[in-house]
Design brief:
The complex is a heterodimer. Helix content of chain A is about 80%, strand content about 0%. Chain A is built from 14 helices and no strands. By secondary structure, chain A is an all-alpha fold. By secondary structure, chain B is mostly helical. Chain B folds into 2 domains: about 90 residues, Serine Threonine Protein Phosphatase 5, Tetratricopeptide repeat, CATH 1.25.40; about 80 residues, Tetratricopeptide repeat domain (Serine Threonine Protein Phosphatase 5, Tetratricopeptide repeat, Alpha Horseshoe), CATH 1.25.40. Chain B is elongated. The chains are: A mainly alpha, B mainly alpha. Chains A and B meet through α7, α9, α11, α13 and α14 of A and α9, α11, α13 and α14 of B.
Amino acid sequence: MLMRPIVCLMIAIFALSSSGICQDASNYYDSLAGKLVSAGNLSEGLDLFNKSLDQNQSNDKVWVHKGNAEKALRDYNASIRSYDRAIDLQDRNAAAWSGLADAYTVKMDYRNATVAVRQLTRLDPKNKGYWLRIGTLQQIQGDFGNATSSLDRALSIDEKYKDALYRKAISELSANKTAEATALLDQVIAADSKYKLAYSARGQARQIEGDHKKAISEYEKALQIDPKWSLAQINKMHALFALGRQREAVDILLRI
Amino acid sequence: MICTLCMAEEADYYDWKGLKSCSAKNYSGSIAYFDQSIEIDPTYIDAWVHKGDALKAMKDYNGSVDSYLGALQKDNKTRAAWSGMIEDYVALNDYRRAAEAAGKLTEIDPSSKERWLTEGNLLQMKGDYENASKRYERALNLDPRYRDALYRRALGLIALGDNAEALSLLDKTLAIDPKYKMAYNAKGLILEAEGRYESASEAYENASLIDPAWSQPKINNMQCLQALGRTDEAMMILSTL
């Protein structure tokens, strides 16, 4: 009679200690793999993440690390599977949702990327970066109305958030509201006079209004910040073409 | 006689050592070897040229030009020296001198279409579209289906305002090589300049189909859609850039 509880106790101690050993091994491999990945050795790092998961399949953080390594190796489908495993284990893992959004974005699957970022906004609605991210994805899909709402959420957290102001200006431009866009872009430039994207977008606003000379002046301001920036160069080339200054336009074309 | 032979061998040996250092990216070390080679035999052209190459790798473009000039003083037809000088002048944004050096190469190899093309390209870079056009004609005399020359000549014609002839050359280029993405791109620019926005947009899309990662036709298409008043589509493109 006395033997039964002792045996049970021994079995429990063995089970607990072996599970502890497995967790230790899993953490050890994960940490080692992380060091390899940081040193740029992605394939070997990935092998060790797999070893870590062989020891313990239920560590959501390791699945995320594995997903990150696969993403860095450009195996986006595998990385999506890994992030999904992490989310199955812990659906509040922001790193997994973020990695998932990145992988879908690279695959140009913007719908699923949006779903993932939306989840991030639910997990942390005070994070302005998540609202910017969702706004940007909505713009890429042509959903400028909802993009503006998302960007407004970002701006309600930080009214001087220049990336959100810039993105909101793009939404305004999409509706030909050049004055509204310009006002937002002026705010961006007031906050950061080196924000080249804002000058370029201001140039596009001038072009939409038909003022190609002023557009060129804006593009030149962007090019003063970054002389090799192709977006501003190409935009300037178009403004020159529009003014019939073809020789100057081709001069740019040859140098892009 | 034996001594001269020994000197030549020694110069060759140091030049070889220099090349070995160069391939190991030890450029300053290689220059020391090339200098030794030149000191032993100042007429040893290869060492002058290789020293010029090493200096170029160290971004000492003026020093590199001087070294190539050393080779050219021994033999004014040293192709590698002229080619090296062209690269130096391009790196220095001195397209006038680069075009002059390219002119020397075409004098040496007048039956090379590539030489005429290079000279034409450099003349275009210095803004001399008229003379560039003549160089492309020489290249096309050698090979009427030379697509790079057709394309660059078309660009020159756009600069000179002859859009119709440029368009015809670009169509010719595309008939020779339907995958020549730059011709579609340039065609789009001409069509856009003439207000034919729908056709221009189509040309840009064709260029993007050939190379989806190439941003230039995408930006061009964005501009084109903007000019068509389709700013929502234009901004969608801008959002993806």
